[in-house]
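Hello K.,

You asked for the raw outputs rather than the summary table, so here they are, unedited. I folded two proteins back to back in the same session to keep the settings identical. This is the first:
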Amino acid sequence: MTFQRARSEEQREVRRRAILRTTSAMLDEMPVAAVTLNELSRRVGLAKTAVLRYFESREAVLLDLMDDRTTTWLTELEPELAQGVHPARSAVERAEQVADVISRSLAAHRVLCDLYGAQGGVLEHNVSVEVVRRHKRASLANLAVMAGLVRQHLPEVGDQAEIFCLNLLIVGGALSAYTSPPPSLLAVYESEPALAVHHIDLRSALRLAIITSLVGMLPRP
C-alpha cells in the first residue's frame, strides 16, 4: 500500500484508519510488545516520519486501536447478552448467565485483553496530555455502555456496574499474560505435566472472576 500526502481532513482520516487496520493485523500475529513503528510503517507503506504525523507514538496508535476494538466488542456483546440471559431467572442465575456470555465473548477477543494488559504500564506512557485525554474520554464512554448492558440484564448491581466493568477489563488484561505461555514454559509443561496444574484457561478464569464479583454485588436476601 502506497499513499500520496494527505491534503484534506478526509484523506487524513483514511490514512489514520489504514494505520489502525495494519496495527490490528499485526497484533493478530505478534504480542503488543513486538509492534514497532518501523515495522508498522513498512507494512502500511508510509515512512516512519509520515506515520508520526498521524499518531505521535506507537503507544498512541495502540491506545486508539484499543478504544476502537472495545467499541466493536461491545457492539457484538449486546445481542449476545440479549440471547443468553433470561429475565425470568433469579438474580444469581442471571449473574451466572452474564458470566457465561461475557467470559466467552471477551476471551474470543484475545488481542483486546492483551491491550488492556499493557494499558497502565506501557500504553499510557510516551503519550501527550491530549492523547491521554482523548483516550480517557473514549474509555469512559465505552465503560458507560458496558455498565449499561450489565444493568440491563442484572439491575440488582445498580451503581456498582461501572466498577465491576472496570475491574473485569483489568482482570482480563492481567489474565491474558498468563494464558499464552512462551515455548520454554510449554516445554516444561510437556516434560513435567504436574507443573501445569494451574495453567490458566482465559475463558474459565474470566467466568470465575465475573461470577465471584457479580454474586458478591447482589443484595442479600
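The second followed immediately with the same parameters:
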Amino acid sequence: MEFGIFVKFFVSLIAVVNPVGIMPVFVTLTQHMDESERIRTALVANLAMFIILCLSLVVGKYFLEMFSISINSFKIAGGMILLMIAFSMISGKIGEDKQNKQEQNESKIKEQIGIVPLALPLLAGPGAISATIVYGTKNPGIFNILATTLTLGIFAITCWILFRTSHLIVKFLGQTGINVITRIMGIVLASMGIEMIIQGIKLLLPGLG
C-alpha cells in the first residue's frame, strides 16, 4: 500500500470535482437559506457524495463485469469524460457540463438541493465516479479499499469546509479568481484524462507500447 497512490487519488478528485468552481453554484442555490439551513445543506451534499462514491468503489467493478466491460475500456471512456469536463472548465463554464437545463429547473422546486443537484451530479458526477472505480480496481484488497474510503472521507470533509466558508472565499477571490482556478484545474484534469486514455489504449493494444 503506497501512500502516494492515495495522494494522487485525492488530487485527481479535487481536479475532477473542482469544488472551488462549484462554490458559486452552492452560494446561488442556498442564498435564500439562513445560516443553519446552509450548514445542513452542505453536510447533506457531501455526505451523499461520500456514500455515492463509496458505493462506486465497492460495487463498481462488479457492475462493469455484469455488462462485460473491461477496466481498460472504462479507462478510455472515463478519460474521454474527464477531457469533456476539462474543456468546459477551461472555457469557464462552471457546472454547466454536469447539470442540464431540466435538472436546473427541477432543483428550484426540490427541498433537498443538497442531494440534487449538489451531490448528484455536481459533486459525484461521472468523472468522480469513473476515477473512483478505476482507482479501486487498480488497488484491490481490504487495506487499499479502507485507505481509499478514508481518502474519500477526507475529500468530503475538505469539500464541506469549502462550502462552509464559500461566501467568504467567493467574496475574497471574486468571480475572476474563481474562473482562473477553474481553468487551471481544467488543464490538470485534461492531462489526467489524456494519461488515462493512453494507459487504456496501451493495455488494450499492447503492441503499441
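Residues 3-15+35-93+111-204 form one domain.

Happy to rerun anything if the numbers look odd on your end.

Regards,
P.
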